Protein 1
Amino acid sequence: MTETLATDATVKAIDDDGVAVVRGVIDAAQCDRLIAAVEDLRADPGPHFRTLSPEGAPLVQSDLFRWRDHPEFEALVTKGPLPQLAAAIFGSDAVVLLEDQYFYSAAGSGTPSPWHQDHPYHPLEPWFLTIWIPLDPVPGETGLRTVPKSHQGPTYAPVEFSAGKATLTDDANVLAGVPAIDDDPVAFPVMAPSFAPGDAMLLDSRALHAAGGHCASTFRRLSIRYAAADTRYTARDWPVASFWDDHDVAGQLGQRIAGHAFPVIPT
Ligand SMILES: O=C(O)CCC(=O)C(=O)O
């Protein structure tokens, strides 16, 4: 394994709290190149592109699985600090690249990313890692916030992010809804660090988190998700992200997901 930004404290924080913040994961020049890449990809939306904001409202948009379409995204997700951080967290030499996602909020937008866990959107076990990175200065209190230790609690129903075309399959839901986190600071003490562009929040996929809100300036950020090498497809009796219908592994219970769609990244 090559040099990594992850310290023992980072690995322990993910284990104990489900969250760790790592500063300066990518530098200003790479943030600028990734901002340009987000704009290139917005101009050429993929099959999973969604406008999340209600019709007529200032835009909040997102797209997934674009790393094969842009060399800047490919370099970010397959080389350097991100896979190395994930490998250190999973204690392995290789990780599975699960998903790259960008979020774009236009200046003046106000559509938040609601409180949710990443885990229930994916028919996978065990948990996986999300690395969230702001590329622009975070406008106000719109950075990622989380409830430390919530990765040890219940799994709640996935929440639909999109005001337009749905992102979830429509299976019957058997899970309780996410509680009103901001209304109960005793039960749900929220951690809301400040971020500079290029800093990262690492999250266990079972950790409750939210982001967004009123953006006085344009706010672009990335969520890159890595899974442990032995991650397998499992059945869910609740809605999952609709893109799972497109994957060969869908329905193959117990099947490892590593393969063409979800490549193994050696570190
Ligand atoms: O940046 C955002 O608005 C949301 C990020 C997030 O919640 C996620 O990627 O799971």
Note: The longest strand covers residues 94-105.
Protein 2
Amino acid sequence: MFYEIKKGHGLPHNPFQSYIVPRPIGWISTLSADGVPNLAPFSFFNGALSHPPMVVFTSSAPAEGGRKTKDTLVNIEETGEFVTNMATEALAEEMNLTSAYVGPEVDEFDLANLDTLPSILVKPPRVAASPIHMECEYFKTVELPGSPDGGRAALVVGTVLGIHIADEVLTDGRIDLGKVRPIGRLGYMDYTVVDTIFPMPRPKPVGGD
Ligand SMILES: Cc1cc2nc3c(=O)[nH]c(=O)nc-3n(C[C@H](O)[C@H](O)[C@H](O)COP(=O)(O)O)c2cc1C
């Protein structure tokens, strides 16, 4: 089949998110300007640059309840800081709980019964049970086309200032993803787990002097 986006796919569910898979989950913790902790998953999330390390994610509204923007976006723009917490198979249920539509006064760490750890370079707390965290500084927002009712969609770019890696997931100086077991987002309501890992060296350069 082929479908033109503006004419629609005619399928029971939108297939778009089954094509860009698996998507890493940026499980993002922030603080509101008033100091209320916030935690939410974002799967339009990725690394954007290695040197310096930078990350991107997209926040899009309308969210549930007719909100025009999301707390994570508001908090990052107001405070300039966020933390990404690795979402793992062991934390899948908790991650999902933190996606609940709740007001900015609700602390999703409490909602999902998650302990926190302080960060070192930024103020938002970390998910204690998560084995890898990145402390980030807000870089900029790129506005994207929002929804017809005025909901805001925006790509947030952040610079990674520091990375925590739990000693128990390091094997011979490498992050052992077989131990971490990150989860990735697929289409529909589906997820996957990183549990098959194979190496493949890059091709050697050919030609030239
Ligand atoms: C696995 C998963 C991935 C999600 N990815 C996104 C995303 O990329 N962008 C987005 O706007 N919402 C995404 N959501 C929904 C948000 O997590 C949800 O709207 C949440 O309530 C936002 O919280 P906040 O208002 O505290 O920022 C995702 C939800 C789940 C469960």
Note: The first helix runs from residue 71 to 79.
Protein 3
Amino acid sequence: MNHPAFTVYRAEGIGRPLIFDSPHSGVRYPDDFDHAPPRAVVRLAEDTHVARLYGGAPAFGATLIEAMFPRAYIDANRNVDEIDIGLLEDAWPGPVSASRKTQQGIGLVWRVARGGAPMYARKLTTNELRQRIEQWYLPYHAAIAGELNRMHARFGAVWHINCHSMPSIGDANADNPGRARADFVLGDRDGTTCAPEFTRAVADTLSAMGYRVAVNDPYKGVEIVRRYGRPREARHSLQIEVNRALYMDESTLVQNAGYAVLEQNLRRLMAALAAFVDAKL
Ligand SMILES: [Zn+2]
């Protein structure tokens, strides 16, 4: 299923209630994204290649949803009200919540690029912001909700992995700047967005491959797992952050020699999760 904002890759046949989404790997930069820093700097906000790393999902009966727009343009992993009013030339008519992310300049629409340079040499209009929400953000969320609801209606339960990548060293906006990251960080918002056994299944599978796995430290999961994870309704959402150094050069975004190994190991993870889901149904 194709839309300018997203692509959905479904399995043949009925498939499994196992859904992956990649909100930050989009590289279609819209013509009206007149960012001030060079594109190479703006692109450091991406989770480059993440959707492709999980591209094998349909072969395991799973669904993959890929955001096509860049995260720095509008960030699907923020609440729609995390609006930085300092970005706007006129007053935003809707609700605004001043979160820590908006104060850091990385709210719904980023005010600064990675490294702290201002993203724009001008103010944005409320009309531009409304268009970004309506044309990109909302359709992406509708795609996630639609796929989750479709599988939940059919199977009575759904398991969702929200896929990201993280810098190998925490950057200035991280909770622990300068600290080296594990290979994977799983986030279930301290056990509130999925059953603990789902987090444990992912952690155990990755650990058995030799990876260093952290849970909720320092990334607990953000808006997408918060919004869709309701374990009491058998809707399980877990965020997975993979260390970028495992698969690419972090400054050029070019895949490195580790890419193929990681891709293969993510296929093994998907196979294990398919078995996990089958055992639960
Ligand atoms: Zn991300």
Note: The mean pLDDT is 96.
